[in-house]
């Protein structure tokens, strides 16, 4: 049976070349007889060379774009650069379809963080339904949900890099809906750890990190503002979900509310279909893969390599990332304290306060977060403001405001304190990718962002149970003092980064210097055509 042929597109030959001419993949002269297909491409094949050099059964890995023409001579190239490559940024035009990506990421943040911020209402209901269970145990349900979806950051980013944002986000939506739907049939709190916390967290993890990463891939000059707009969905969701969840809890119970959450999680499929994978750097193919008539190796090695890249510990060799990750761990211990325990604190502390009014605390906190994300996102894009400096000042102020919660003498004062807290805590999440990009470079963003999410997830898992334990051992005020101190300490630790020398980071990927003109309208490199 004749082998499949490789049809090549013609490119201008470089000035110098030491490559051997390529021949057809046919194994016999009879198979090389002209036919109508070869006649159509004959004028291309005559002047085309294939850049595969094989000596002693060891072949070069070559960029896909080179298969269409010639591999540049190793002696060519500009000084200071690798011989066969030059730096050219692979990024779509600023804005454009990127604003559609921002809208899709907004919907993802709206649902994911909206559900997470409404767990405070579930905490009150679960304590009434299962009075024998301590608060520290019940809080594990919500902490696992948030912690797992943050810990999924490296894996989710690796999967998105391999299979595309669309497939990963859509799959996460289906997994999260399955977890919430399974919780409808659960009658034990400890089983909810698995269905609501772990399964729901895995699904949300496949949604959250890839959606933010996709926004970063479409913006450069206004990346902080774009990410700020996207994560504004977290604040809007935090405003809407606690009120709606409380209404559903009163009418249908917590079991019926799980059906509501399952339906809401499925809406992320809509956002997933809008996530178009941006331009990728050049790929490499082996001779074995080309001979098999395929354009990529089989999926297991691809996935394996992506996971290795995303979970690599090399980023920890950078002292800037090491300090920032430590600050993120300390701050994330206190991050879930308001959303989990502030409504319950208001419900217990102030007399004649119903659950709907207590839910208004989180509405105020998240509503102020909208303005905080937009304002601080705009300032972070300004050349006179450093994103890390904004981050440190804001989380320090947030720590002070959170420590003042126990001394609020009325519900009105508590609302005012919550509004300011929500405003200043907003940059903690919205500026994370911007800080990592400005300090480490875009090429290290996927690994650094994924590892930071992993660290924050681990801290989020232990934070709420620790808060509940402190409240049981001492009083309901002590955990808020502890959380406020954690934010203040995190700001001090992050400020150490300013004492380190700032490295110049590259934001580009290597592409073929001989084929600069072979970019499409969207800037994507030409690839081989296999038939």
From TrEMBL:
Biased composition range(s): Polar residues: 78-87
GO CC annotation: membrane
Location of the region described as Disordered in the Swiss-Prot/TrEMBL record: 1-41, 70-90, 507-531
Domain of life: Eukaryota
Subcellular location field: Membrane
Topology in membrane: Multi-pass membrane protein
Domain Major facilitator superfamily (MFS) profile as annotated: residue spans: 101-503
Low complexity bias locations: 23-32
Gene Ontology molecular-function annotations: monocarboxylic acid transmembrane transporter activity
InterPro entries: MFS, MFS_dom, MFS_trans_sf, Proton-linked_MCT
Keywords associated with the record: Membrane, Transmembrane, Transmembrane helix
Transmembrane feature ranges: 97-125, 137-160, 167-186, 192-218, 225-245, 257-275, 315-337, 357-376, 388-413, 419-436, 448-466, 478-500
UniProt-listed PANTHER family: EG:103B4.3 PROTEIN-RELATED (PTHR11360:SF284), MONOCARBOXYLATE TRANSPORTER (PTHR11360)
Protein name: Monocarboxylate transporter 13
Species for this entry: Hypsibius exemplaris (Freshwater tardigrade)
